[in-house]
Design a protein that fits this description.
Blueprint lengths: L1 E10 L2 E11 L4 E5 L6 H9 L6 E6 L2 E2 L5 H6 L1 E4 L11 H5 L12 H14 L16 H13 L5 E5 L7 H18 L2 E5 L3 H7 L2 E6 L2 E7 H6 L3 H8 L11
Parallel strand pairs: 3-8, 3-9, 6-7, 7-8
Antiparallel strand pairs: 1-2, 1-4, 4-5, 9-10
Bound molecules: adenosine-5'-triphosphate (ATP).
Length: 248
């Protein structure tokens, strides 16, 4: 279980997160939605320790994540970055096995390679891809490799940052379905940030909407369609008119 309590973060006079409170149960898939610039990435970066919050606490299984425990926390999760963010100079299998080749989860090279090939198979890629380099792959294949890397160390928690950015709608659907099935079979807790509604419907058990620095609405994915919250309704239907003001 991940708990976030009273999280605040400002940059200068700009309050990005004002008071974020969030609980994600073990095995639950939560999707955080919200318009551009609402602080979704800042929230993720606070959880990862890439940005230091001004106030608030983040707990994993009841234990506060602090500087001292962050490494242990990070060892228990996987991350699929926006745009896959593969290392160009490493082969596909070395990208997938990145955390198995160094650090606390280090394995012998042959074992790491075997795990990488197994994870590639899980995301629909054959062993012939293992020795290619990222530049030789299509965008959809790169996402699959990024997904294989995220699950390589069998994480308890997986973060997905805009998992469908840059993909055509069909490939986005394939990646969404793959994420859903992998998260379910691993029993992992998943947190996804996105503004792609097709991802929300495919991946989410529950949905939280970030707006003006707070989680303005939270519920399960079925409730999202029936809520009378005008902010949620405007967002899910992509309407220009409504309480959310956009720059035009
Ligand atoms: N390091 C930083 N220094 C100053 N301001 C920042 C920093 N990081 C983020 N911000 C500001 O915080 C706000 C929220 O940014 P964030 O990237 O979290 O938005 P987002 O919801 O992820 O948007 P998008 O969907 O467009 O990626 C923005 O106004 C941004 O300019």
């Amino acid at each position: 279980m991940i708990e976030i309590e009273g999280l605040r973060k400002s940059f200068g006079s700009k309050q990005v997160l004002r008071d974020v409170n969030l609980t994600v149960k073990r095995g639950e898939s939560l999707v955080v939605i919200g318009g551009s610039g609402t602080g979704k990435s800042v929230l993720l970066k606070c959880i990862l320790g890439l940005v230091t919050p001004d106030a608030g606490e983040i707990r994993l299984e009841g234990q506060p994540v602090t500087e001292a425990t962050r490494e242990d926390f990070l060892a228990r999760f996987g991350m699929l970055f926006q745009g896959a963010a593969l290392f160009d100079s490493l082969s596909v299998w070395q990208n997938v096995a990145f955390r198995l080749l160094r650090g606390p989860a280090k394995r012998p090279k042959a074992e790491a390679r075997a795990i990488a090939i197994d994870k590639l198979k899980r995301v629909g890629l054959g062993p012939e891809v293992a020795d290619l380099f990222p530049a030789e792959l299509s965008g959809g294949m790169q996402k699959r490799v990024g997904l294989a890397r995220a699950i390589a160390a069998d994480p308890q928690v997986i973060f997905f940052d805009e998992p469908t950015t840059g993909l055509d709608p069909i490939m986005a659907g394939v990646i969404n379905d793959l994420i859903r099935s992998i998260v379910s079979e691993m029993g992992a807790t998943a947190i996804t940030i996105t503004h792609d509604m097709s991802s929300v419907r495919a991946i989410a058990d529950s949905v939280a909407m970030l707006h003006e620095g707070v989680l303005r609405w939270q519920g399960n994915v079925a409730e999202m369609d029936t809520t009378s919250d005008p902010y949620v309704q405007q967002f899910i239907h992509g309407r220009a008119e409504g309480p959310i003001t956009a720059l035009r």
